[in-house]
Structure formats: C-alpha cells, structure tokens
Design goal:
Largest sheet: 2 strands, antiparallel
Keywords: Cell membrane, Membrane, Repeat, Sugar transport, Transmembrane, Transmembrane helix, Transport
Distance between the termini: 53 Å
Strand order of the largest sheet: 1-2
Radius of gyration: 22 Å
Subcellular location: Cell membrane
Main location: membrane
Helix content: 55-70%
Function: Mediates both low-affinity uptake and efflux of sugar across the plasma membrane. Mediates both low-affinity uptake and efflux of sugar across the membrane.
Shape: globular
Family: Belongs to the SWEET sugar transporter family.
C-alpha cells in the first residue's frame, strides 16, 4: 500500500498543496446553504443528492489513493471531504421532512454502502497488485466523467434562454482553475487517473466561461418566474462534486386572500409540497391578485 508514500517531484507537491487549498474552500462553500436551513428550520427545496454523491466521490478517491503511489495529498483532502459531507448529510437529515429523510437514508445505503461495498469486495478478492490499481482508477475516472456531464443540461439552457442567471461566472472559473491544478498534479506524479478526468473538467469550465462572455456581449434576457436550479459542479480532491445549493428552489410564501363569500375572509392559501418542489403554485387563489407571484 502507498498510504504514506511521499510526493518526490517538488512541482507535484506544490500543485497538490494548492489543489488541497482550493478544494478545501470548495468543500466549505455549502455552509451558507446550511445556515439558511438552520435559520428557517427547514430544508425547503434543497436536495441531499449532491452531498451523498460528493461523499461517494471522496470515498472512491481515498480507496484509490490507498493503493496508488504518491497519494498522501489525495488522502488528506478527500478525508476532509468525507468528514464535511457527512456533517452536511446529518444536518440535512435533522431538518428534512420525513419523506426526504427516508429518501436520503435509502440513497446512502444504496450508493455509499451497497455500491461502494461491491467495488471494495470485487477489487480486494478478484484482483491484486497493479491490476487492482488500474481497476479502481478507471472506476474513479468513469464516475468523474459521468458527473462532469451534468453541466451539459445547464449549458443547453443558457444557449436556449440566453440567460446566465443560473450559471454564475465564479463557479465556472473555480471549476477551470481546479481542473488545471489537479491535471498538473496528475502529470507530475505520472498518474493518468488523476489527470484524465480533469481534462474534461477544464474543457467544460472553459466552455462555460466563453458562453458566459458570449451571452453578456449579446445582452442576456431576464427570465420571469422561478429560476432554474443552480447546479454547482466543482472539482474536489480529484473527483467532481456537486456542492453548494444543489437543486435550489425558493418556496412560495403564503398570503391571506380577502373578499370571500359573504364578506368573510377566506383562509390563506397553503401551497402543497408539490407546489414548493416545482417552484410554482398552479391554480392558486393568488393568481387573482394584482402583481406577479413572488417565488
């Protein structure tokens, strides 16, 4: 095992250290989200999937780093990732409604226990030596590439709507810088499993920044009604992670409606769970009021 092996190349150590620093800050980026959840006592429209996937990604890269050479810096940042993602998930479960609690626990058992357990058993008992490292490495690369494909839907929405309201420039910039740093780390450590997925991360990050500039030059359109979810894709450790807001939908604030039958005041409209999740209340009494419905 290469758990305690050191990074011999000075540039590799420098890029790995810088990558740890950037990834550390990316891991802490969801803190405002959870402060809002704590303040309101509800998870609102936020989802637990980004944090469960982030935990699975960190677990995979730690498992790979245990067997791969020059892996100390990978283990350090992804160990912190496992810790902070677990805190986020526990925090989410505390404030989530019962249905989301059950969904989150099921997802954890399926992905982080079931799938990860199968990978560990398969690689430990059916492979050894360099073959084991190759299998784990390609599993990590495949998972990273599949998650990196997530921004494609956002890119298509930006092109179609000509609006970057749900694709912040800081997100694209951090994605690009992180990809470059971890790619260089993989190059200097001669680790293709670290370098390869970050090539795709660099391409997607650059594409998003170019698209952002193009839309700004043309003049972006203002989208009326609820905004689309903000998908926050960043590279943490060496694997992509969805962090931050995840699928963020601001809930609808109920307002009292007057002018009922016989002059009596009608009960305030209470949006259903489905209305909150979809971000818009269909056929609600609020549609009869003046002014747009605030979401």
């Amino acid at each position: 095992m290469a758990l305690l092996s050191r990074v011999d190349h000075p540039l590799a150590f420098s890029f790995g250290l810088l990558g740890n620093l950037i990834s550390f800050m990316v891991y802490l980026s969801p803190i405002p989200t959870f402060y809002r959840i704590h303040r309101k006592g509800s998870t609102e429209g936020f989802q637990s999937i980004p944090y469960v996937v982030g935990l699975f990604s960190a677990m995979l890269w730690i498992y790979y780093a245990i067997f791969a050479p020059h892996s100390g810096l990978l283990i350090s940042i992804n160990s912190f990732g496992c810790f902070i993602q677990t805190v986020y998930i526990c925090f989410f479960i505390i404030y989530a409604p019962k249905s989301l609690k059950i969904h989150t626990v099921k997802l954890l058992l399926y992905l982080n226990v079931g799938v990860f357990g199968i990978i560990v058993l398969f690689t430990l008992f059916l492979s050894k030596g360099s073959m084991r490292i190759q299998i784990i490495g390609w599993i990590c690369v495949s998972f990273s590439v599949s998650v990196f494909a997530a921004p494609l839907t956002i890119i298509m929405k930006v092109i179609h709507t000509r609006s970057v309201e749900y694709m912040p420039i800081w997100l694209s910039f951090s994605l690009t810088i992180s990809a470059v740093i971890w790619f260089l780390y993989g190059v200097f450590t001669k680790d293709r499993y670290v370098a390869l997925p970050n090539i795709l991360g660099f391409l997607f990050g650059t594409l998003q920044m170019i698209l952002y500039g193009w839309v700004k030059c043309l003049g972006q359109r203002r989208i009326d009604g609820p905004k689309l979810p903000v998908v926050n894709i960043g590279i943490v450790g060496v694997g992509p992670i969805i962090s931050g807001g995840g699928s963020e939908v601001h809930p609808i604030e109920a307002r009292p409606v007057t002018g009922g039958v016989g002059g009596e005041e009608e009960k305030p409209y209470e949006p259903s769970d489905r209305d909150i999740i979809e971000g818009v209340a269909h056929d609600s009494p609020l549609e009869d009021q003046e002014g747009p419905l605030e979401v």
